[in-house]
């Protein structure tokens, strides 16, 4: 039985969960009745119950996700009320919507929804604020590399690196790697240091500086990246002392000198590189 907030805001798998449904569920764009949902869940090693009980650890919120609940006595509403009461009693019950259930069927993690009372004892599920909502911004996209003006005589290594195709290719590979784990890469939030990529896992927030190694001395680029990500992490920890923050230095490829991994580790930085991104 799951007790407390063991999910840390994310349901990792259907395995081991005892679940119930509020009604039919829109699974990958197709309305699916509860009996079929139960079969799909059982295939993923979940136990399915018709009604809510103390054994239930996961509620799948179905057919009224976009409507107003008008009858609190109907089963789909009472299950959310019961889940909310269970949470307030100290036993956390996870809740996912149709999209979350579809992700779990594909063996991908899904966000556990918060429950909010909306009057007359009714309860509705809402998306929880991302773990790094004050740090992470919108979805990260790969940019088209720009050109440095020929008349610019000031050498800004950070701007120059961000303008290279190798840098953006590494960002794209990192986004694809995270996506395969069900994680969306994010930009930095307004007013925060301009790290290259960020993401969250539960309560942990990760910020990454990306460095290409083409057209520059490897040691120069890695030293620059270490200094930048340490600076970013220090600023963010000062502004958000309650956050579990993890600085990451991402390289275009494995560095020639193996000493960089131990140096980064001694500074509290995780060093990784394309294309496999070891340690992420």
Automatic annotation (TrEMBL):
InterPro entries: BRCT_dom_sf. It comes from the Bacteria. This is Protein NO VEIN C-terminal domain-containing protein.
